[in-house]
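[Meeting: bench + compute handoff]

Bench side (C.D.) handed over the final construct sequence. Compute side (W.E.) agreed to return the predicted structure before the next meeting so the bench team could plan truncations. Sequence as handed over:
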Amino acid sequence: MAEHRLQLPLTDEIIEELRADDYVYLNGPAITARDTTAARMDAYTIPLLEAGLKGAIGKGGRGHDVREAFVKHRAVYFLAVGGAAALLSKRIVRSNVVAYEDLGMEAIRLLEFEEFPAVVCNDIHGGDALETGKAEWRREVTRGA
């Protein structure tokens, strides 16, 4: 696994270099479409990828069709550490509501990241950090039994 300091927005050249399990530090603007569960965003992710979305951030795994869509549309899915919102928020240096202010925490916001830490979960090469991790865990459990 490699470590990358990335300037947003993502480009095809940057995305090509990323591999599942790589550590990244994101810098620059990002738009939020916050929900409490990554999988609930699956219905919206493919249309967003078709419209040009190059990266998404969440805390959990994505469905099979969405994982394939990240490959097809040459985009990446990053994992942020769950349960660490207070620490991660220190890496958001600006936050402005751009739509749906009446939704409060669910409003669409333009954020500015400074060294926001994440892990590449799904890459354009078909890599999946969660699946790799589960397989490794199973091998360890089997070995230890």
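W.E. noted at the follow-up: The chain has a mean pLDDT of 93. C.D. will use this when planning the next construct.
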